[in-house]
Amino acid sequence: MIILVLNSGSSSLKYKLFNMPDEELISSGLIENIGDAHKKPVFTYQNLSHGKIRNETACKDHRHAVELVLDALTDTTGGSLINLKEIKAIGHRVVHGKDIFTEPAVISDDSIAKMKKLTELAPLHMPVNIVCIEECYKILPSITQVAHFDTSYYAGMPEFSYLYPVPYDWHKQYSVRRYGFHGISYQYVNETASLLLRRPLSELKLISTHLGNGASITAFSHGLVLDTSMGFTPLEGLMMGTRAGYFDPAVIPYLISKTGYSLEDIIKKLNNESGLTAISGIGRDMRSIIDACKGGNSRARLAFDMFVHTLRKYIGAYFFSLGGADAIIFTGGIGENSPEVREAVFENLLPLGIIIDKKANLSIKGSKTGFINSPLCSTKILVIPTNEELMIARETWKVKSNQ
Ligand code: ADP
Predict the structure, then answer these.
(1) Candidates 10, 14, 304, 338: which one to mutate for ligand 1, based on the most atoms within 8 Å of Cβ?
(2) Which CATH fold topology does 2-149 show?
(3) Percentage of the chain surpassing pLDDT 90?
(4) Which pLDDT does position 27 carry in this prediction?
(5) pLDDT tens, position by position, 14-25
(6) Could you give the CA distance from residue 295 to residue 297 in angstroms, rounded to a whole number?
(7) 213: Cβ below 6 Å to ligand 1?
(8) What is the average per-residue pLDDT within 229-234?
(9) Is the CB of 333 under 6 A from ligand 1?
(10) Is residue 282 in contact with ligand 1, taking CB distance under 6 Å?
(11) 42-51, 119-128, 200-209, 228-237: which range is least confident on average?
């Protein structure tokens, strides 16, 4: 069964075409810089056994991006499909499902209308997620389409974790609470960890970290979320590429009075000009930061140390809350590829019995999966490259197969 997966970000559209349930990847691609005033959109894709094609494109918005992807799939010179009707189902990633969408939802006028009401909870992502869904629904109305929410995996999180200690009616009236994100990624890495550990998720205590430009950490107890670092929005929690993470909100009125910034300016700065970018002074890319550390750049070193320190604090808190962990999992661009970050996170943890195998750690990067803990260590440390598109394809296949 051919399944198309679309994963739209604020300025990008990623796709993968799978043959399910064999999980065979038929083609994949990415359009970047959509709607960016300073950079030209670039479309990189690969069909069947053909080589990679990389073109600048005149893609003006996400609606147009969907059309370009569908055209590329049926391109007469090397497209993967003869006709779009070969696609039996489409899976879409949607960032926020609030407490309304606790499982994948079949696309209909009704589910789209419900999603539109959630736009204000993730204003950068929800509008583009919905535009992509609407465009596919318009072009391919008879194909089953399914929305998968990054927040759904948190459905079982306990109230004592998801509530903020703020006036109770903020929660009751305005749904102010912690929702959690990166759920599709966590579902994928946790299910992979369960296979590697040869134990069912219902028996495991896991601490999973997704460290990309956006970064989060989640504690899982016996298959359910115990706690997570991202909150009402993906701004809370760990220090990230450009996001501040946890931060005292009392600074906001103080800064407004001192600087004349508007509230909107400050929220924008906390989202786009904070985190690694702000502290390093050389951008958000962990590779450049590590290189600069090696060259003696003290701001880059400070950014690295702050990133690691924050991560250690959360891992420590979750380790304690869970009463120990069977495994600590690393995924996302930094988690999968940076032995330096992973080694620093586990420095001096001998008293807790958590010891990294330095040689194994150095060897695992660039899409490799493996254990990086010392054999003496009862808490395993795992690196698992995430595959959100495959997770969406699996779940879409389940929905389609049950129709
Ligand atoms: P996104 O959250 O945008 O999906 P990714 O998961 O692709 O991000 O992660 C991107 C980040 O991964 C980059 O900012 C870069 O810092 C980091 N990264 C990628 N490769 C390496 C590497 N070899 N060493 C350290 N960091 C890396």
Answers:
(1) 338
(2) Nucleotidyltransferase; domain 5 (3.30.420)
(3) 87
(4) 93
(5) 999 999 999 999
(6) 6
(7) yes
(8) 94
(9) yes
(10) no
(11) 42-51
Tell me the residue length of the chain. Answer: 403
CA–CA separation, 222 vs 205, rounded Å?
6
Q: Is the separation of the CB atoms in 60 and 100 below 8 Å?
A: no
- For the CA of 284, the closest atom of ligand 1 is 14
In CATH, 197-383 is 3.40.190.10: no
Q: Is 150 a catalytic residue?
A: yes
- State the Cα–Cα distance between residues 335 and 311, nearest whole angstrom: 11
Q: Which sequence spans correspond to the domains of the chain? A: 2-149, 197-383
pLDDT > 70 fraction of the chain, expressed in percent and rounded? 99
Residue 48 is predicted with a pLDDT of: 67
Q: How confident is the model at residue 122 (pLDDT cuts 50, 70, 90)?
A: confident
